[in-house]
Amino acid sequence: MDAAPKFTPEERKARYETPEKGQYILADAAKKLNGWVKELDTTRPTTANMVLPQVSHVSGYADAVDILGYSYRNSVIPWGSTHFPNEPITINENPGTWDDWKQVLHNGVLVQDHFDIQGTTVH
C-alpha cells in the first residue's frame, strides 16, 4: 500500500502552483465538460477519476464534478476525508479486499465499485 500524502492541502497547492503551466489545464477542461453534461442532464451527479487525488483537490479538477473517484488510492482516502469532509468519494477499480471495505467503514461517505479482470462490473 502507498504511504499517506506527506503534504497538507495548502502545501500541495503551493507546490502545484509553482511551476509554469502549459496551454491546457485539466481543471478547465473538466469544468467545460461537466457544464456540457449538465446542459443535457441535471438529474444525475457527475464523477471523474482522480488519479492523483491529493493534486486533483488543489488544482481545481476535483471542483469540476459532483463525486470524486479514487482508484487504487486507499492510503489517500483518510487524508481526503479529513481535509475535504463534504466531498463525496467513491473508491473505484479496487479488488474488494478487506482494506477496501475498511475504507468504506471508517471514512463515511465512500462507495465501492468492483470490476472483474475484464473490466466489467461485478454484481
Detailed description of the structure:
The mean pLDDT is 82. It contains 5 helices and 4 strands, in the order ααβαβαβαβ. With 123 residues, the protein is of the alpha/beta class. It has a 4-stranded parallel sheet with strand order 1-2-3-4, covered by helices on one side. It has one domain. The protein has helices at 9-17, 26-40, 53-59, 77-83, 98-106, and strands at residues 47-50, 67-71, 89-94, 110-114. β3, α5 (98-106) and β4 (110-114) form a beta-alpha-beta unit. The protein is globular.
Layout of helices and strands:
Elements: H1 9-17, H2 26-40, E1 47-50, H3 53-59, E2 67-71, H4 77-83, E3 89-94, H5 98-106, E4 110-114
Helix pairs in contact: 1-3
Give the tags.
GH; 5 helices; alpha/beta; globular
At a glance:
InterPro entries: GH (IPR017853). By secondary structure, the protein is an alpha/beta fold. Helices cover 38% and strands 16% of the residues.
Task: Give the overall shape, derived from the CA principal axes.
Answer: globular
Helix content percent band: 25-40%
Report the structural category. alpha/beta
Give the domain tally.
1
Cα separation of the termini: 26 Å
SSE run: HHEHEHEHE
**Overall pLDDT metric:** 82
- How is the main sheet built? 4 strands, parallel
How many E-type strands?
4
- With strands numbered from the N-terminus, the spatial order across the biggest sheet is 1-2-3-4
Percent in strands: 15-25%
From the alpha carbons, calculate the radius of gyration and give it in angstroms: 15 Å
Task: Show unreliable segments.
Answer: none
Number of helices: 5
